[in-house]
Amino acid sequence: MEVHVLNNVAKFIADGGTPQAAIQALSDNYRGYAQMSNLLTNWLTAAQVEDGRCAQRLTIHHLKTMIMQRFDPKEADSLFSVQTSEVPKWLEELIKEKEWRGMVYELAEKHRQCVLLSFAIELIAQAGYQNEIASVSTATANFSVFRRIMTETLVSVLSEDEDQLLSHIDEFRRTICSRQFTYLYAQALLYNLSSHDRFGRQFRRISQELSKGFEGRALLQSRDAEVVTSNGSRSRVVVRIVDRMNTLLSDLHNYPDIFNSISCIIADSNTNTADINKLYSAYTSATPPPTRFICEPVVIDLLMRDLFDPSRPLYAADREKYIYLLAAACSSDESSLDSDADSLKEVILALTQLHTMCRIKIQSYIVVATSMVDMVHIPIICQCVLFWSIQGLRASQTYSGSLGSVVSPPFLALLKIILTRHPLLRPRIFELLTTCFELTMEPDATDALTVLEARKKLLHMFLSLSREGFILPVLRYLTQRSVSIDHALLRYFIRLLLSLIQPPYSRPLVQHVSELLVQPQAQQALHTEEYKTVVHSFADHCVSCSAQYQLDAHDLQKLQPLQTPTVASDDIRLSPVTDPSAALE
To answer: Could you write out the DSSP letters of every residue in 64-88?
Structure first.
């Protein structure tokens, strides 16, 4: 079964060896590993280990491992080049199975110049698996495949909720931002689609998310690219040519009064009095320009930062202009200010009141929480409160500085209202909670009982976030921090978590929960029979439904130690054999 055995036999005979000697050598050294593998496979199937799927899964896993290790792109391309014009039958069969398609994706990422793999990716796209290859960067090398992926993705995301949208956007961003031409094509298409009557705003949102992703990757190595690390600026690689590209794709150049001001603010990631005065004059004139130009996330973030970052000075004469522009960007229709005059006045009044409270030197989260109950329906007000809270916590850098007020009942009650009413602000709430949690680990934190009580309240808030669908980021964070969490608190959180979630589960949820449960700290915390029973029940259910949840060998390996011991002992296991050939005797 060796690849070059016939060549070696021919060489042996050519060098004087006899055919009888060649046959004798082959038979004496034959070990029958293929037959042994088949025998073990038949044993596992007959024993019905994991409903008979164990043998197939192990075989596929081993073959994938060998292919990944030994794959030679040059040899694969040479094999592909000698084929006929028809698609090889073995390749058609290969892409029908999800496990083998996954192997093709991994190989394509590793060997980006391989013709065979590029052709396989195109066949997979034609077979209707665009969603699977959306995150494969090599898929963009073929424009027809890329266009098909983009069309399918745009159609699907329009009908999804926020959590699903963010998940697909992350995969979509990796594909779009892998090459310059795909980014430019996508942004030009999205700009044209942004004028759609029904879905225009969704297309603009996708465009903005792609812009952030492309800037972060910094694929355009131009002289204008620079890393901005100064205090208060965007803490990511800013590629100015991307900002210019986005500006040129829009119709901002048709409004010369504000073109330079907005272009400078976006390019510099900073505001200045001169540009703010020009924008304020333009948007308070009798014929203001469309507000979509100041609805850019960068502009909104900078206005909010200058208003609600306690460390940044703001002259009283400029406050009214900043507040007006922020209110106009967040409360009015993107085409006109006239249609939302009442809403604009309401937001201006609320921002003015909130800014006055937040600029008081002695910060009181309780006062802010109790005073803004009537304003909690305004999204930008909630976003400003969260931003101000995070900045205040980071500035204090101590437990006693601000954390005691943040975990107070009034402020936590406010956070629960915000996370329920404003789904888009859940990432901000998560950022605030993680900032608080990190402060409880500072050396100068107050007494241990107070810290434990604060952590317990924060874990309750993490559970509230999980209940609203923001569970995966919570599980990732607590898994990373499990070593620093007290056993009692970790046990308390896991018990409430497992009582909160109900089957059927998604595969990512099973993976994240099991990853948390197998942590040494979690294993030590769940030492009592009461808690072990809850964990065993979760693991047994996931293993029994592994086919439904599409769990692979790695997932099942993590779940195995969490199963009920009696269930695990019922599995038939084969004794290890030192010499596989002994199994045939």
So the answer is: HHHHHHH--HHHHHHHHHTS-SSPP
- Dihedral in degrees, nearest 10, Cα atoms 454, 458, 463, 468: 140
What tokens does 353 get? Answer: 């009141």
**C-alpha to C-alpha distance for 169 and 209, rounded to whole angstroms:** 8
Rounded Cα distance, 37 and 42, in Å:
9
Reference 413, options 364, 360, 373; nearest CA is 373
Instruction: Tell me the one-letter amino acid at 260.
Output: N
Q: Would you state the pLDDT for residue 163?
A: 62
Per the listing, tokens 């201006």 go with: 348
DSSP assigned state of 271: -
List Cα–Cα distances, 56 to 40, 43, 99, 464, 572, in angstroms: 11, 12, 11, 41, 16
Report CA dihedral (253, 259, 260, 265) to the nearest 10 degrees.
Answer: -130
The dihedral built from the CA positions of residue 41, 44, 46 and 50, taken in this order, carries a sign that is: negative
Measured in degrees and rounded to the nearest 5, phi and psi for residue 134 equal -65, -30
| Burial class of 518 by CB neighbour count within 10 A (0 to 12, 13 to 18, 19+) | middle
Q: How many residues does the chain have?
A: 585
What is the average pLDDT across 73-78?
82
In whole angstroms, give the CA distance from residue 309 to residue 304. Answer: 8
Choice among 48-57, 108-117, 188-197 with the minimum mean pLDDT: 48-57
State the pTM of this model: 0.71
Tokens of 154: 């745009």
In this model, does residue 572 exceed pLDDT 50?
no
Tokens in use for 294? 């100041």
How many angstroms separate the CA atoms of 398 and 570, rounded?
53
- How many CB atoms are closer than 10 A to CB 389? 28
Q: Name the helix (H) or strand (E) containing 237.
A: strand 237-238
DSSP state of 238: E
Using the CB atoms, write b or e for 328-348: b if 16+ within 10 Å: bbbbbeeeebeebeeebebbb
Taking residues 431-458, report their average pLDDT.
80
Query: Collapsing DSSP states into helix, strand and coil, what is residue 226?
Result: strand
* Identity of the residue numbered 555: D
DSSP structural state of residue 399: I
